[in-house]
């Protein structure tokens, strides 16, 4: 498994992992493709294994493809797998503690307030993040939330949500700054995140904080 694929998988872990037929399969109650997709372990792995594994579980077959896996990508395409959600891995180069407004509540556990901005799927997300060491940020009045998964000097920002009524009011900026500052205080000064490439508003936000693209991947989905 390639370096960034392994890192992203570590920080957003599936609830169940099965390795067979040259693939590493993740299952997490259908919450996000990232935790419910196959990762390539053997360059010659057969796409039919992906189809079989997820069909057996009544799930949509999905594979995550990274740079250098072009041959496997072509085989998946030949089996009818469509490319969806090209995603950028963005890294913040600066190791300095960001200026943070301190308006969000940051804790070690996801409480009811953390779940409230987007309750659908929140419990499953909490179970995924519960397999990591994480910080949970909640904006005032239930207007947004976010998370930073900690792994040594590394932090992965994820699960960012802003409710529609609060968008373009600086909620996401405050959550991101407070999360990164809290992670920095825990010893994590290397920050990265994953964002769908076509999400231009989110990319603009992250670029303002100094994030630049380091890698990318896309999903191949059947049906």
Can you characterise this structure?
- This protein is an alpha+beta fold and 223 residues long.
- It has two domains: 3-87, no CATH class; 96-188, Aminopeptidase, CATH 3.40.630.
- The model has no long low-confidence stretch (mean pLDDT 95).
- It has seven helices and eleven strands.
- The longest helix is centred in the last third of the chain and has 15 residues, at 171-185.
- It is globular and about 50 Å long.
- A hairpin with a 2-residue loop joins β8 (144-151) and β9.
- Residues 94-118 are annotated as: Disordered.
- This is GNAT family N-acetyltransferase.
- Keywords: Acyltransferase, Transferase.
- Say what the CATH topology of the largest domain is: Aminopeptidase
Q: Low-confidence spans: pLDDT under 50, at least 5 residues?
A: none
CATH superfamily of the largest domain: Gcn5-related N-acetyltransferase (GNAT)
Task: Round the mean pLDDT to the nearest integer and report it.
Answer: 95
Provide the number of structural domains. 2
Spatial strand arrangement across the major sheet: 1-2-3-4-11-5-10-9-8-7-6
Number of helical elements: 7
Counting helices, strands and paired strands, the structural category is: alpha+beta
Per CATH, which architecture of the largest domain?
Answer: 3-Layer(aba) Sandwich
Biggest sheet features: 11 strands, mixed
Beta-strand portion reads 25-35%
């Amino acid at each position: 498994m390639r370096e960034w694929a392994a890192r992203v998988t570590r920080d957003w872990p599936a609830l169940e992992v099965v390795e067979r037929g040259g693939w590493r399969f993740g299952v997490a109650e259908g919450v996000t493709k990232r935790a419910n997709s196959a990762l390539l372990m053997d360059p010659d792995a057969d796409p039919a294994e992906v189809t079989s594994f997820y069909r057996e579980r009544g799930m949509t077959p999905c594979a995550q493809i990274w740079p250098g896996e072009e041959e496997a990508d072509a085989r998946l395409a030949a089996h009818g797998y469509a490319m969806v959600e090209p995603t950028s891995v963005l890294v913040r180069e600066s190791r300095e503690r960001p200026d943070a407004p301190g308006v969000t509540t940051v804790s070690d556990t996801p409480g009811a307030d953390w779940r409230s901005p987007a309750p659908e799927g929140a419990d499953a997300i909490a179970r995924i993040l519960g397999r990591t060491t994480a910080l949970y940020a909640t904006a005032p009045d239930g207007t947004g939330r976010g998370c930073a998964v900690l792994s040594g000097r590394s932090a992965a920002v994820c699960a960012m949500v802003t409710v529609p009524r609060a968008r373009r009011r600086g909620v996401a900026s405050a959550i991101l700054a407070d999360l990164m500052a809290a992670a920095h205080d825990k010893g994590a000064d290397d920050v990265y995140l994953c964002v769908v490439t076509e999400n231009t508003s989110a990319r603009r936000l992250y670029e303002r904080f100094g994030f630049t693209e380091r890698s990318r991947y896309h999903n191949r989905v059947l049906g």
